[in-house]
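Rotation project, supervised by the postdoc (A.L.). Task for the rotation student: set up a whole-complex structure prediction and record inputs and outputs verbatim in this book. Inputs entered:
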Amino acid sequence: MAHRFLARPTDSKGESVPIRSLKDLPIAGRRVFCRVDFNVPLDGTTVTDDTRIRAALPTIEHILEEGGRLVLASHLGRPKGKRVPELSLEPAAQRLAELLGVGEVVLTDDCVGDGARKVVGDLRDGQVALLENLRFHPGEKANDEAFAKQLAAYADVYVNDAFGAAHRAHASVNALPKMIGLRGAGLLLEKELAALDKLRGEVQRPYVAVLGGAKVSDKIGVIEALLSRVNALVIGGAMANTFLAAQGRSLGASLVEDEKLALARSVIAKAEEKGVDLLLPTDLRVGESLEDTSAEVVGLDGVGGAQMALDIGPETEKVYADRVRKGGTVFWNGPMGLFENPAFAHGTTAVAEAMATCPGFTVVGGGDSVAAIQQAGLASRYDHVSTGGGASLEYMEGKKLPGVEALL
Ligand code: ADP
Ligand code: MG
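Outputs recorded:
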């Protein structure tokens, strides 16, 4: 099935419908509206992590090299439909200019209106401008047609390269592309979908999923979907506490979702029914506060009343790392402990390192998990590091992403 398009969702007859790739869109001399995810962390007016801007560079450079007149658009933070000066995209525009090696990337005063129209109208082939924060207008989150129409006025071609926003039915990713005939997926979006599609298709086995993080409730959808696909489900983080509590363990002052105990028990039962190895911690590292540095190692019955389980223990770590290293396919979402405190980062680091040396196909998603592997300097050692936490989970659940569907 060699094609240059992405064979993605299916139509009503169950046929595979292609989405155009950026490489198949006519760019030269055209105004290209490209939705990117420049929702970057800021410290005042400084971008503290430019990963998302870098991730969009291949698409941006391709469009400029092909002689497109590039109009970039993004959201930043949660301005709630109003102009919030602290959430201006100015720092992102500056960082992009540095990365592109150009003196300046013009930022419009607003994403719609006369100012933006003039900037876009003045663009010449191979030039770029960035629209101000889309979420300064309530129409963006409301998926408003009239707002989308104003944006559509700038675009001969529409490209979505904002995987991190693809699970939202917002105007710039959903209503807008439907208004433009020449539309397609940017290189980042294409890469993200290709990696996750590989996980959703025939995988090399054993297929090991490692799930952690704060809450079972955030990830129950993906847990249930993975139970039908994986050979082993490895659970860590605060999420593991809820599973251990469901088995009757006392976890002291640990983060446990009491209202999810029945759900955890049903996951344990389903895993058994489906022959999935469900791995839970056999030892833990505990502390009396989030700042604690003692990180005492205890067995499952050793968590004191005032203590919190904040990381998996060394014995668990070895078992988890071994599973991960032997995986034919490994998907990881959610840290194994309170990794922000180095005393409780051992489990997360062990999984991250095991995955880096695993010869199988390895994918990691999730904002905090990705931050942890970047902190460990391991990001380049995985087959794919997703830029979209929520979007990657929804896609793994088998849900349709509004930003992808709109490109059909
Ligand atoms: P991701 O962003 O990778 O999807 P989550 O947002 O679900 O991950 O969870 C990450 C958070 O969970 C981190 O802030 C981490 O400190 C916290 N966490 C993990 N394990 C524990 C634990 N045992 N107790 C308290 N917090 C934990
Ligand atoms: Mg998170």
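Student's summary: Residues 51-65 form the longest helix (15 residues).
Supervisor addendum: Residues 1-5 have pLDDT under 50 and may be disordered.
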